[in-house]
Amino acid sequence: MNRREFLKSSSAAAAAIGLSGLPLPWSAAYAASRSDTLLLISENGPNNLDIQGVGTNRPGYEASWNCYDRLIGYGTKTLEGGGVSYDKDKIIPELAESWEVTPEAITFTLRKDAKFHDGTPVTAKDVKWSFDRSVTVGGFPTTQMAAGSLLKPEQFEAVDDYTFKVMIVRPDALTIPDLAVIVPCVFNSELVKKNATTDDPWGLEYTKNNIAGSGAFKVEKWTPGTEVLYVRNDDWKCGPLPALQRVIWRTIPSAGNRRALVERGDADVSFDLPAKDFAELKKGGKVTVASTPISNGMWCIELNVTKPPFDNVKVRQAIAYAVPYQQIMDAVMFGEAKPLFGGPSNMVETTAWPQPTAYATDIDKAKALLAEAGYADGFETTISFDLGQGITSEPLAILVQESLAKIGIKTTIDKVPGANWRGEMAKKSMPFMINFFSGWLDYPEYFFFWCYHGQNAVFNTMSYQNPEMDKLIDGARAAAAAKDTAAYDEDIKKMISLAWDEVPRIPLFQPYLNVAMQKNIDGYVYWFHRQLDYRSLSKS
Amino acid sequence: MLRNVVRRLAVIIPTLIGVVIVTFLLTRVLPGDPAAYFAGPTADAASIEQIRHNLGLDRPLPEQFISYVKALATGDLGNSLSTGQPVINEIRSRLPASAELTLFGLFFAIIIAVPLGILAAVYQDSPIDHFCRVVTTAGVSLPVFFTGLFFVYIFYYVLGWAPAPLGRLDVFFIAPPNITGFYLIDSLLAGDLETFQAALAQLVLPALTLGLFALAPIARITRASMLSVLSSEFIRTARASGLEPGKVIIGYAFRNAMLPVVTTLGMVFSFLLGANVLVEKVFAWPGIGSFAVEALIQSDYAPVQGFVLTMAILYVALNLAIDLVYGLIDPRVRMEG
Questions:
Q1: Contact yes or no for A47 and B82 at CB 8 A
Q2: Which end of chain A is more exposed for a tag (fewer CB within 10 A), N or C?
Q3: Is B29 within 8 Å of chain A by CB?
Q4: Residues 37-56 of A with CB under 8 A from B
């Protein structure tokens, strides 16, 4: 039975059911609405529909993004290489119609026609409640809010029904960008409060399984681990009404099957493909493929500077010269990544980020540097990586291992299961890691704040602490807040140059986010959160 | 008979208590920190601690155990962090999916393996015996994920005969009203033949994959057991008395050869129920095996404990059922009490 017959028979069945009056109201609509329905497949589904919940996974962010509204959003721009991306420099209204920024506060005027899915109007007290919630519940949402200096409920004030004020506690260029990420979304406060309990005053249990928002889509049915079924919110006011009426999001764990489904034309969009499948699908030409460099993201080799011999900068540089960069690009990434090596100089000339180091594979130079450091005969160490990312990091580790053997460094490979990786990172005991990091907010000082700053956050796996670096990072943040472009550029260039010269972390490449879709799908936009936005998609 | 059942059930209780303790301890001994895992990408030490506290993982082990047992007594198996749902609901909705797949796979295996085993024994060293050998060797040696992907490639991707491997139902069908949890049965009960057909179409490939794997031990045991019975004296007598071959083979030989076959069936079934993880993964089947493995990878304790407990109960029940079936097949092993 082919697909057409399948659909035909199902609509016949649906009609028959409709006549017999059985309670299956959606069937007829389903079969008829194939052209307004998007079938999306990906490896994992959400574990929570609320980004402010405990341990919400990345697919959960997608549900939150599409079903809730924020005060403000990002505009889009066309990228040089084609394709459309969010624009970090263009803030557009969402629930807020307009806003006014003074050194003390940001005052938002809310649109008056926005309604939650249950029909209650969105007011400033809902915004206040939602923001209070995000800075109080702890965990990831609270950390993310803090990244924009949004720290405590006292900062937020509902002036009247449609005026909302955010007090500024310290000048921070990231405050406004941080208000446009997924976390500060607006909840229907009365609805959630009604379903809250004394143990759970913020109603996290309720929002885990129910949407209490005003966003462009509603979750009609969620079968955890299997499927999410969205319908469009026809009353959405915060932007142009989405073209898609329904989105069906199925979890397909097997990468091979995801590929078969999209190649056969049964699935409309396959999200987040492995590099190999992407390269082959592109060559096959049956489907449209889109790939966008993941903003503010890099794969790196990270060397723990508290563990000898990696405390010696010459040893780190020797390793940076021994990495088989091009081989990694070809064999691991199938050419589908942006190289971050072989640049003109480690003393960088631009503030572009991420940008390449001057390192390139040069075994003789590596040997010489190692000899200078007093390790002419090499040493032994362990390469660790997250098995959850094994599809990239495992072949990468093997190539690095082979290459290091050439300069006398003997390595064993330690595969750390996904569940343990974060814990191992926090311990800062691994000497040599292959790892990926990306920041939502696309600013170099944001990356450096997490990964190089002496505050020694969990992502500074190298335990790199250098007062000079801290001064540059803090300086860049202050300059950004003061809008002092010259000082900012100066600090950023110095900061990157210092990082490249001292190489506690050896950049390898900037990966792409890969998506395959049918040729009749239009309007794909890359987002910093690396999840799919259904609002701009259309199907012809 | 009834007293026997009751006595057997009484023996189960200590087994289950043991299972509860062991799984609780095992999941705690495993390396991995669920709090760090679920704290997300930009978590700092404080937020990890906060999540640890929310999950109750900062309390001493005995205290955690007591609250676990208390909850268990009320039928609460805890919450799964990876899907965000109560474990009991997950098991309730996923067990039928796995059971439907496994039973169907086993059904496939039986209708092929048993006749094949009998024929191979009756016509020993004939082409059919060699064929049986090839099939069973292939069944054991081909890993299920390979046969699964291979079937998908041939029957879905190349030929287009099979529906898209999208789980239990095509996306444009609605699951039948939940009565037994078995889509085939529920759709028939609802009188919805289209859904029945769609569910059956989705089931065929994964069940075949699983069946091919289960086929080998059943065919081998059937053949071996038939061979030994066929060479015994009462068969020679039956043949000498001029009984027709069909009656001799099915009526006398096979009935006597059935005991080991039933034992193997029981083992294969319980083994398949847990081991069809790979088939579930390949076919996006929302079953219990893939759920448990996912949970294990994420150090998500509650589903792992729930899964092991469910499996233990199933296994014990299955063994009991098989023992009772023995008695029906062969009066000589009927339990005395």
A1: yes
A2: C
A3: no
A4: 39, 41, 46-48, 53-56
- pLDDT tens string B78-116: 777 767 778 888 888 888 888 889 889 999 899 999 899
pLDDT of residue B334: 60
- Output the CA–CA distances (angstroms, integers) from residue A464 to A133, A437, A491, in the order listed: 34, 16, 18
CB atoms within 10 A of CB B75: 8
CB contact under 8 Å between A419 and B299, yes or no, is yes
Cα B115 from Cα A1, distance rounded (Å) = 30
Strands A538-539 and A337-339: unpaired
A17 contacts B32? CB cut-off 8 A: no
Alpha helices in chain B (DSSP H): 2-29, 34-38, 45-54, 61-73, 87-122, 127-141, 144-151, 183-189, 193-230, 233-240, 245-246, 255-275, 277-282, 288-297, 301-329
Q: What is the pLDDT of residues B302-330, one digit of tens each?
A: 888 888 888 888 888 888 888 878 777 77
- What percentage of chain A reaches a pLDDT higher than 90? 61
* B149 shares contact with chain A (CB less than 8 Å): yes
Task: Give dist(CA A411, CA A400) in Å, integer.
Answer: 9
Which residue out of B30, B51, B171 would a mutagenesis test of the A interface target, given it has the greatest number of A Cβ atoms within 10 Å?
B171
pLDDT beyond 60 at A29: no
Please count the residue pairs, one from chain A and one from chain B, whose beta carbons lie less than 8 angstroms apart: 179
Average pLDDT score over chain A: 88
Residue A133 Cα distances to A108, A116, A127, B12, angstroms = 19, 18, 10, 48
Count other Cβ atoms within 10 Å, centred on residue A320.
Answer: 27
Q: Which of A286, A225, A280, A215 is nearest to A251 (CA)?
A: A225
What pLDDT does B289 receive?
83
User: How far are the Cα atoms of A196, A204, A224, B233 from residue A207, in angstroms, in the given order?
Assistant: 10, 5, 14, 72
Q: Per-residue pLDDT averaged across B120-142, rounded?
A: 87
pTM of the model: 0.80
CA distance linking residue A70 with residue A184, whole number of Å: 6
- Render pLDDT for A469-511 as a digit per residue (tens, 0 to 9): 999 999 999 999 888 999 999 999 999 999 999 999 999 999 9
Nearest to A292 by CA among A87, A60, A9, A497: A87
B189 touches chain A (CB under 8 A): no
Distance from CA of A120 to the nearest CA of B (A): 28
* Closest partner CB to A140 (pick from B40, B283, B299): B40
Chain A touched by B302 (CB under 8 Å): no
Is pLDDT of A27 > 50? no
Query: Which of A138, A147, A250 has its CB closest to that of B166?
Result: A250
Q: What is the mean pLDDT of residues A296-309?
A: 93
